[in-house]
Amino acid sequence: MRPGAPAPGAPDTKPKSFGPSLKRLLRRLAPERVLVVLIVVLVTTSVVLNTLGPYILGKATNLVFDGVIGRQLPEGVSKEQMIEALRAKGDNTFADMLGAMNVVPGVGVDFGAVGRTLVLVLALYLGAAVFGWLQGFLLNLVINRTVKRLRSDVEEKIHRLPLRYFDSAPRGDTLSRVTNDVDNVSQTLQQTMSQLLTSVFTVLGILIVMFWISPLLAVIALLTVPAAIVVTAQIAKRSKPHFVDQWKYTGLVNAQVEEAYTGHEIVTAFGRSREVAAEFDKRNQRLYESSFKAQFISGLIMPAVMFLGNVNFVLVALVGGLRVATGSLSLGEVQAFIQYSRQFSQPLTQIGAMANLLQSGVASAERIFEILDAPEQSPDPVMAETRPVDRGRVEFEGISFGYDKDKPVIERLSLVADPGHVIAIVGPTGAGKTTLVNLLMRFYELDSGAITIDGVDITEITRDHLRSRIGMVLQDTWLFRGTIRENIAYGKTNASEQEILDAARDAYVDRFVHALPDGYDTMIDEEGSGVSAGEKQLITIARAFLAKPSILILDEATSSVDTRTELLVQQATAALRKDRTSFVIAHRLSTIRDADLIVVMEQGRIVEHGTHDRLLTERGAYFRLYNAQFEAAAAEA
């Protein structure tokens, strides 16, 4: 990571607000709008059936209660006569209650009617369960499709980002965004969407029925809602920064672990294990603190809302009892209302409990959106791959470039490389040698000037077509998990077996591969375990040979190869370089004596160019480099 470059997700990065980020996340469900509408219909149906259940159960309670009271009244008199008799005795309370009941004096419980009512309730709940299962199945399908598209979008975005982005982003943090944060968004949607939809529709349905039964009790039940909303909002407001920190430090911890694991040998060799462990402990402690605070603060929502729900229950039970006593409501209606009041507070409690999940998921979504919103590399021109770039004549026309605009690395550099020529680029560290070939590959865009291949500006060629004509072998080898055969074939996916074997022989891979247990089918991992550093380099060279490019770039490609193998590889590349342009970045000047043109760079400028013998004769920068190298070798000897 270059000094001074801000890392995405760094502590000074301001997160987006909760509302817009949540809306943006929900908008990603748009391609599934048909299924979403069907889910809403299923949820509504399920909630309606569930909501009718307590009301019908209240009817069953009335049947039982009416039967019990009717059994206690004298047979042969009418209900109206009993009410008049009670009022005559001054028992107005019982008379009012009896007036609101559907009793027949002397007649007990109608168990047949009770049974039919219970069967109806059972059917309602069974139907609600079926519709609920269907909406859960479809919602799970919608969410998984949405997350699949999100992963694909992030993966495609990664490939459209310029290398400049990765220069300024810790690799572990980027990996955490692509894996951990996407997984967290998936879990958040799966755990909250279904419950959230059900809870919202349940609240609306219950409100309608409660106002239908008793507007007074409904108003009492609603008294606690504003308090619950205020409590939830205030707690969520205080927990959100800690959720943001939680996922930020998750990325930093992953970056630390990935860096320490990749460079384990260096850490051990330089005795920095304690410092690395101390830095990990520091970041891990920050992750622990932010996670604890986020979960603890957000965890206060549910008990607070439950307390308000219990207060609501007490008020409803008290007022409801008085209304039954005055005959304004039946016992069944009060029973149903109490059930509704509990059901009403339950979804509010669930919504409050989901607040912490939503906070966590939206915090992860913001980190993902930062990648999706990052500036992309300039788009490829349409149909540009039809432009011929097969001869390999490369011209750098007054190019300038800097990783930072105010710190140029290359300034007004011009250079021509003819087909079949070997161009060696030498110079001290930081002179711009590797930057030059990175610009040729369009890993970075020029600040000014132009690079042409066979007279075609490389910006008029698609990157894929451009890079398919260039073979590149780096000093830092990289192998993929797979067999040696598969790693060689990476240079040409449709290569035949014979082509793979020929490339392996040209790169002298065939010399050592037969000594391995499974030959070309020997499995190696990303770190190249099982083969030496020099053998890994030969495999990457064979990969470039197989591609048969028009332009070849060797960035200190033989640095890990022994002297004898280096000579053999140079002989093999001689045939490959025929009618092809080759750029060789070398520190060992003895390896480039036969180059057609040697370019000496210092501070982003070409200070000398010519053949090996001519540059030594001029006794300039190349002469000083050459003598310094061999003087150092003599001193070491």
Task: List strands and helices in order, with pairings.
Elements: H1 18-27, H2 33-72, H3 79-88, H4 92-99, H5 111-160, H6 163-167, H7 171-213, H8 215-222, H9 224-262, H10 264-269, H11 273-299, H12 301-325, H13 331-372, E1 394-401, E2 410-417, E3 422-426, H14 433-440, E4 448-453, E5 456-457, H15 463-468, E6 470-473, E7 482-483, H16 484-489, H17 497-506, H18 510-513, E8 523-524, H19 533-547, E9 551-555, H20 563-576, E10 581-585, E11 597-602, E12 605-610, H21 612-618, H22 621-636
Parallel strand pairs: 3-10, 3-11, 6-9, 9-10
Antiparallel strand pairs: 1-2, 1-4, 4-5, 7-8, 11-12
Helix pairs in contact: 1-13, 2-5, 2-7, 2-13, 3-4, 5-7, 7-8, 7-9, 7-13, 8-12, 9-11, 9-12, 9-13, 12-13, 17-19, 21-22
